[in-house]
Design a protein that fits this description.
- Pfam families: Bowman-Birk_leg.
- This is Bowman-Birk serine protease inhibitors family domain-containing protein.
- It comes from Tetracentron sinense (Spur-leaf).
- This protein is α+β, with helices and mostly antiparallel strands.
- It has helices spanning about 1-25, 30-40, 105; strands at about 55, 60-65, 80, 90.
- β3 (about 80) and β4 (about 90) form a beta hairpin.
Length: about 110
């Protein structure tokens, strides 16, 4: 019985040593890099406008951009995205006025004269 206990102790010690050595060699950087790249894609730098801005009839008014895109605009402080591919993101910022300019204001074709 004592021999069996000694063999079990040696086996457990070797198993722990092998597992610790395998964990020490595992490189997490590819996984972390892919996760960081996905979060960087949720913000697009070239377009900062809103197509649909809705305001509640309250005093003061509470407005929010309701666009669903694969990214949020750069000035968004609270970006929420789905885990779908491509992601669907929207800005959950609420302000007393539309947080950003309308996309139509930047486009000369859609301006009302």
């Amino acid at each position: 019985m004592a021999v069996k206990m000694a063999m079990m102790s040696v086996t457990m010690l070797l198993l722990v040593a092998v597992v610790a050595r395998v964990d020490a060699r595992f490189d997490f950087s590819p996984i972390l890099n892919s996760m960081l790249q996905q979060t960087d894609n949720s913000v697009k730098k070239d377009l900062d406008c809103c197509v649909i801005c809705i305001c509640a009839l309250s005093f003061p008014p509470q407005c929010r951009c309701t666009d669903n895109r694969p990214y949020c605009f750069p000035s968004c402080k609270n970006c929420l995205c789905t885990k779908s591919n491509p992601p669907q993101c929207f800005c959950a910022d609420i302000a007393e006025y539309c947080p950003i300019k309308s996309c139509w204001e930047k486009d000369e074709v859609h301006k009302i004269i």
